Structure prediction request, 212 residues.
Amino acid sequence: MGDTKEKILMTALQLFARDGYEAVSVRTIVEELGMTKGALYRHYKNKRDIFDSIVERMFQIDAQRANDYQMPAKTYEVMPDSYQNTSLEDIQTYTIEQLKFWTEDAFATKFRRMLSLEQYRNAEMAELYSQCIVAGPVAYTEDLFRELIKEGVLKAENPRQLAVEYYAPLFLLINMFDQTGEIEEYMEILKNHTKHFWEKYVMDVGEEEGYE
Prediction:
């Protein structure tokens, strides 16, 4: 039963990523799978149930990856201590791995493309796209940088400004990948970006803190 449920979910995600969520019906999914609607309904109540399961899976993967890379798995409000104990090295490693994840992982790439297709047609999809790919990562990075500024690791700059500057190349390279399929060059660009960012903003010994 588990294999069938997983096959339904992954097939639906593939169709959503190809055609868009709104364009795909339960009939489309069962025809792709070669099963009946009744067989599908034994595992999922409807198309929305499949979609909700996809979103839940994505959030679970995201939290697990954060844990794997010693990064905060939830918001600052939920787990502030984790933000206060994250190192520059962990942030850099996680940033580079996020480029690989959003461009190479089979589940993540389809999830991202589904949201990309629907963000201009569906307010909920637009919000999810922002939460996962745009505003969410910027806010996450802002919280990390604010704590690093407080600890005297980063220079006394506006943490939101730093977050936008830091995250923008990653966002751009993810979108460039969709056009070119190149990854090695983009990985090198991102590595150089993170290196130069730290060189620019990491506090030198003896510098005074000043950001409020």
